[in-house]
């Protein structure tokens, strides 16, 4: 009898273990989503020209509305469409969407990366959503010279199974006008922890969205996202325009493998709120450099905290490099907003937007000059 009970509980343990292993195995891995680069094709019978004729025609995806399956090299008017990842992409016409259901871990933050190219419409907007979160991302300014830009967006998983929807909210005269989408990927975000000395979270921008290995133009972090839902944990992009997340595989970064390029002048500001003690002195230390991407010129990065501000000049030869800078400030509240922005706009010779790089930032409490004198 005792033996039977024992073996019964052993089975229960085994079943539990098996369940948790299965659950772990089922949660999605970082990287491209299943058929995230659309290389698995619809059957020829599900296509009419480029138009996708049935809901489940593209493996792993569900489509609604006017969706086209586009092969790299496809010509539209005098525009040659080139695809960043593999040879295929999709195009979302007016009110069209693609969706995929993902197995995730409840309570965990994820960031979605996808690449999009504007085609013929003037003002294209994509609504990216995982219920109940959504973000409307404008796809109007080309930051890269290829016409493709990659975008990041983050969500908190409230369920074990969630549905990611990318929806073109456009209402163009030509229903076929709409952005191309490719390389849809996911990355688990780990909330950055504070160290005792440094008050800034994710100080080197090492924690952030997935960078699609075959893309060479970074990932845009869109503005106006609440900081707990930022694809760049700890940081917010204020103002109107995006900042660019860059990686050391394709760019020169001052420290580690990731950094941020301020590509939109004063229209984009990178900010973080830190806890401070009013009256205490602090030092914000950071690196200012260039991404080694041919962005040349006299640059200035401005940093703000409490009532203090500093302008850090940096002459970029476009070949990489950086200098260290410091902003000393006295806190006037329990929360201090630390902000970085680029004073000027910069463009590369191909016309794409670029700018100075910020990396390796820290806020440390320092002794004030008066207390030092007393010692
Ligand atoms: C997601 O989980 C369900 C069970 O909850 C399973 O049937 C399905 O195959 C999983 N999907 C993937 C892509 O792992
Ligand atoms: C991505 O880049 C790798 C390495 O450069 C290459 O081998 C691979 O074919 C590329 N993949 C696609 C889909 O273009
Ligand atoms: C975006 O999509 C979500 C989910 O479908 C929806 O709830 C939300 O209203 C949409 N927002 C806009 C501005 O279209």
Automatic annotation (TrEMBL):
Keyword Signal tagged: yes
Which residues does the UniProt record annotate as the domain DUF642?
A: 31-187, 199-362
What's the main place this protein lives? Answer: other
Looking at the record's lineage, which domain of life comes first? Eukaryota
**Signal peptide bounds:** 1-27
Record localization? Cell envelope; Secreted
> Mind listing the UniProt keywords for this protein, alphabetically?
Glycoprotein, Secreted, Signal
One GO location term (cellular component): extracellular region
* InterPro entries listed in its UniProt record: DGR2-like_dom, Pectin_Meth_Modulator
Give yes or no: UniProt keyword Iron.
no
Report what the protein is called.
Answer: DUF642 domain-containing protein
Q: What organism does the UniProt record list as the source?
A: Zingiber officinale (Ginger)
Q: What is the lineage of its organism?
A: Eukaryota, Viridiplantae, Streptophyta, Embryophyta, Tracheophyta
């Amino acid at each position: 009898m005792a033996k039977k009970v024992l073996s019964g509980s052993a089975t229960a343990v085994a079943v539990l273990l098996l369940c948790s292993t299965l659950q772990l195995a089922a949660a999605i891995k970082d990287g491209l989503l299943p058929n995230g680069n659309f290389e698995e094709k619809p059957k020829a019978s599900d296509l009419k020209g480029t138009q996708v004729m049935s809901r489940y025609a593209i493996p792993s995806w569900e489509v609604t509305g006017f969706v086209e399956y586009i092969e790299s090299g496809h010509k539209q008017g005098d525009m040659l469409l080139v695809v960043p990842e593999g040879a295929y992409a999709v195009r979302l016409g007016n009110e069209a969407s693609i969706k995929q259901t993902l197995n995730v871990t409840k309570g965990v933050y994820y960031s979605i990366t996808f690449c999009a190219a504007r085609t013929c419409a003037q003002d294209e907007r994509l609504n990216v959503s995982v219920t109940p979160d959504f973000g409307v991302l404008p796809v109007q300014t080309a930051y890269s010279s290829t016409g493709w830009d990659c975008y990041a967006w983050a969500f908190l998983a409230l369920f074990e199974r969630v549905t990611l929807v990318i929806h073109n909210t456009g209402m163009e005269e030509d229903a076929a006008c709409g952005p191309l989408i490719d390389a849809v990927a996911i990355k688990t975000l780990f909330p950055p922890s504070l160290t005792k000395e440094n008050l800034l979270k994710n100080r080197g921008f090492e924690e952030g969205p997935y960078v699609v290995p075959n893309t060479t133009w970074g990932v845009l972090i869109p503005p106006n996202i609440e900081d707990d839902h930022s694809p760049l944990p700890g940081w917010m992009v204020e103002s109107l325009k995006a900042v660019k997340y860059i990686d050391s595989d394709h760019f020169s970064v001052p420290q580690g493998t990731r950094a941020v390029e301020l590509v939109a002048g004063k229209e984009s500001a990178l900010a973080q709120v830190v806890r401070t003690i009013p009256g205490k002195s602090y030092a914000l230390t950071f690196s200012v450099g260039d991404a080694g991407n041919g962005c040349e010129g006299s640059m200035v990065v401005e940093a703000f905290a409490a009532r203090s501000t500093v302008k850090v000049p940096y002459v970029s030869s476009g070949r990489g490099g950086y200098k260290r800078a410091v902003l000393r400030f006295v806190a006037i509240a329990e929360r201090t907003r630390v902000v970085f922005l680029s004073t000027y706009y910069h463009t590369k010779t191909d016309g794409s937007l670029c700018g100075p790089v910020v990396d390796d930032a820290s806020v440390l409490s320092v002794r004030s000059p008066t207390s030092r004198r007393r010692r």
